[in-house]
Specification:
The chain is of the alpha+beta class and 91 residues long. The protein is built from four helices and four strands, in the order E-H-E-H-E-E-H-H. It has helices at residues 14-26, 45-54, 70-73, 80-85; strands at residues 4-10, 31-37, 61-64, 67-68. The protein has a four-stranded mixed beta sheet with strand order 2-1-3-4, sandwiched between helices.
Length: 91
């Protein structure tokens, strides 16, 4: 089974909470989930660099194996279909 690195970038809003819950519901044992809180008072240097590297300009955002999920890239709501297409829950 191939491990999948799933990163969720949040800022403490209700939509961010929904995104985290959806990813957690859909994830399988192959998904390693990292939640990055990027509120200005809590952001780490690593999280700040990842925002830049991934080209994230809106939150919440989900990255799977170093690739911004299509819905996030197109500034669309995070959906089950987009997460499944990115491999989340595909054990």
């Amino acid at each position: 089974m191939t491990q999948r690195q799933v990163e969720i970038f949040v800022a403490g809003c209700p939509r961010c909470d929904e995104a985290v819950n959806l990813v957690q519901q859909m994830s399988c044992t192959a998904c390693q989930i990292q939640v990055w809180d990027v509120r200005s008072e809590q952001i780490t240097a690593t999280a700040r660099q990842k925002l830049e590297d991934y080209g994230i300009h809106r939150l919440p955002a989900v990255v799977v194996d170093g690739e911004l999920v299509d819905c996030c890239r197109q500034q669309q709501p995070i959906s089950r279909d987009a997460l499944a297409a990115a491999g989340i829950g595909q054990g």
